[in-house]
Amino acid sequence: MSAGEFDRAVAEFSIKLRGFLRRRVRDDATADDLTQETLLKVFRSRAALRDGQRLEAWLYRIARTTLIDYYRRNRPTESLPPTLTS
Question: Is 65 inside any structural domain?
């Protein structure tokens, strides 16, 4: 897959990626941020794509990893009150 083909395919698929991420977060702004972060990862690691026929699966895997990282970063840091832990 040439660089131009890759760029076009990813650009066309970005709307689906945003929808995938939007269904898993609370608001549009977060979905936009995660979509942008995913696309940055995609373009930075395009050399890792071995098979152009598997582009969609590869994009979703990167989006899922980005989503997992988001939830890990935003994990609550406060302890539960003692009345709730019993």
Answer: yes
pLDDT tens digits for 4-34?
Answer: 899 999 999 999 999 999 999 999 999 999 9
For 35-45, the pLDDT digits (tens) are 999 999 999 99
CATH number of the domain bearing residue 54: 1.10.1740.10
Tokens of 85: 């832990």
Q: What's the pTM value of the predicted model, to 2 decimals?
A: 0.82
Looking at the structure of the chain, the number of domains it has is 1
Provide the 10 A C-beta neighbour count for residue 30.
15
Which are the contacts of 65, defined by CB distance < 8 A and separation ≥ 6?
Answer: 41
Q: Tokens 């609550």 belong to which residue?
A: 76
CA distances from 16 to 19, 23, 42, 59, 78 (A): 5, 11, 14, 10, 35
